[in-house]
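Sequence in, structure out.
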Amino acid sequence: MMNGIDLSSSSDPTPSEKLTRLRTLLQTHNLDAYLVFSEDCHFSEYVAPCDERRSYLSNFTGSAGVALVTCDDSVTLNGDALLWTDGRYFQQANKQLCPLNWTLMKQFEPNVPSVEEYIEKNLQGKRIGLDPFTVSNAQISSWRTKFALSSSPPILVPIQKNLIDEMWEIRPSIPQKPVCVHPTSLAGEEVSSKVSRVRESLVQEHGHATVISALDQIAWLYNLRGSDIDCNPVFFGYGVVTLTGAHLFLGRRDENDEELLWLSEEVKNHLVEANVTLH
């Protein structure tokens, strides 16, 4: 189960009510369907409760899966709700999905289309919304290239505001748990050495900067650890390394809206010594 957390409560809308709310939002945004991925905006497989959007919508809490919900226009769309996941989770999905509302698509099984195959065949010319922060540009480019071969290609529409967030009335807050230093004696390499190696790669690739969004990579690069995601020693943030500087963007504030007061002096000094600018 994803983080072992049950996202449902007695006050939650029913599976049918959730789908009705989402389809209302689809009409508002002029969409025919909406994709909900498992990953957060850092492409983490295991995510914090606030990012368990697919789990909230479908009640399926496995760590891998993609949901697709279509409108019901009584003409070309039948109001489908489909959940793709792999063989590790077939039994769990069968127990957690409401059979009156959801269809389990058993990924990689014979005669079961993939997400893109289903879209290509059944949603020709339709507008499919998605949160661009939860899927890679490479994935979207690959799908668009494939869809372009169709006489009436499906249209992927990035929606900046995640529609599940819009309908999730009691969404868990974003974690801001303490960050601590991971000592060099355990890390095996100084931050300055790691940053230098990143810069060497930048020079080889004729680049000027790289943005690091994967949480485990950020924790590794800056020799820091956290617990914003259960059972994962990571914290929310972004890293940027340029040819002349290194930056860590945390963007956290305390209850008085004052930056960095929650951060320990040890962590601040650690970053100063490593010439990492904290934002």
